[in-house]
Design brief:
Radius of gyration: 19 Å
Helix content: 40-55%
Largest sheet: 6 strands, parallel
Number of helices: 12
Bound molecules: adenosine monophosphate
Strand content: 15-25%
Structural class: alpha/beta
Length: 281
Amino acid sequence: MQVITSIRELKLIISNIRRKGKTIGFVPTMGALHKGHISLLDKCLKDKNFSIASIYVNPSQFNDKNDLRNYPRDLEKDCKLLEQANCDLIFTPTDEEMYPEKDVRVFDFGTMGSVMEGKHRPGHFNGVAQIVTKLFDAVEPDKAYFGKKDFQQLAIIRKFSRDTNYSIDIIGCPIIREADGLAMSSRNQLLNKDQRKAAPLIYNTLRQAKSLIHSQSIPEIENYVEKTINNNPFLKLEYFQYVESDSLHQIRQFTPEVPVNACIAVFAGKLRLIDNIEIIL
Ligand code: AMP
């Protein structure tokens, strides 16, 4: 497994791989890897690609300086995990490599970018689009693998891939969870004992919100979710919404055959946890 930090070197290696007729599969990450990340790599390898994982904590997508400062980093452990998982190449660039100068590009995703995470983390998706386009330009993959854990991010990446004519297959991969249902996340290691104990309530509540759609109205379920989460002393609801899975438009009633996701963001102290669940009627 090679570990590369420069785009120039990366491009040389990739052109050699292409000459051998191999396709390139790409798994972008911010490191502090867990089984959720590895599941993306497994899928990438299963699809018989030359697999490239990137590890880069992208400053431009953090709207909170403390969150960026505290974001967990362990490159040595990440490299070991990726090697064990048979990754072919790790791209781990420096800030200077990715941002030789300030990126002033502005992306507008319309409603898709201004609801939920877009509303509560201003500038977040602009930063995501800046780094993902830079990484796509550096790697030029045939396929790129993203987790459904970041459901809105996946929808937005699909959208700008269409808008920019990238001929990259965007593959959405299932959410990997802890045994108690908590969606795996690099930030989970920052939860204290009480918060970690409380956190599975998020997914349990989402499951309830899925089963209640047959017996209760959306406002009633919203009320239920708010009460259930906020009754726990270690959690505080930021938002809960049912949205159309493709457009991310908030829905006020269910229509048969229109796929919907219920999306949630919850604070555990200063940490923000997000999750979602698919609902197909
Ligand atoms: P991150 O390192 O948090 O930026 O995540 C890198 C990629 O891994 C993104 O496509 C995430 O959606 C995906 N990912 C993170 N957590 C999970 C999970 N629990 N299950 C599946 N994919 C995940």
